[in-house]
Write a structure and sequence with these properties.
This protein is an alpha+beta fold. The chain is built from seven helices and 14 strands. Helices cover 26% and strands 34% of the residues. Helix 6 packs across helix 7.
Length: 244
Amino acid sequence: MNRHLLDLCRRSERNREWAYSGFLSPAEQDDLLCCPEAAGFRFYFEGGYPEAERRILVAGDAKELGYPAEPPVRLVHVRPLSLKFAEELTHRDYLGAILGLGIERTLVGDILILEKEAWFFCIESAADYLASSLKQVRRTGVSASLCTENPPALRPRYETVRVNVASERLDALVAAFAGLSRGQAIALFAAEKVLVNGRYVTDKSLRLKEGDILSVRGYGKAVYDGIERETRKNRLWVSLRRYA
């Protein structure tokens, strides 16, 4: 993936024009940021709203080209045809319905759900097709339409979680976050169920940084906000924002 993204940066520099990728996972974005070759290029990431996880690469030098008027990211609004008979649909349900239309995952960004409606970002070239073709999510009939601007409520919803741990080691955080014993938490690492910023982690002693996204398969996902305070017994209260 890095090779493809670096090629986009080179093409942008050579042709003196903006170049764009498909949607990238947090891990793919991090790979590029950590790549020494990328340091010589100008680029940024865009996901449609400030808190986006999945974002496209926008390659180009803003000082030379001026910022693009509108990167090729569009927003689609999905609502049930009948609220009375609408199911409680999940992120997986919406993504499955979208991919079931023959759409590649790289064409679709974040999916945000508010009660029985959803919004998702997609690459411009797929937007009209998705808005006209998405008719059903699981057993619920839906209508989809393009949005001209982001609704004010379009933000991830969080629930603040505070846990008491002996240290900032990742296995301790996973155990407290998931409500498991330390041994049960350690087993999740071997089963590849612990991710940080979209990447599977095996290092149980890893310390998270503020803003890191912790995912524990089957138990939820949260943004790590760091240590709030230390107790008299040298234990730590740490804060996370669990995705609702």
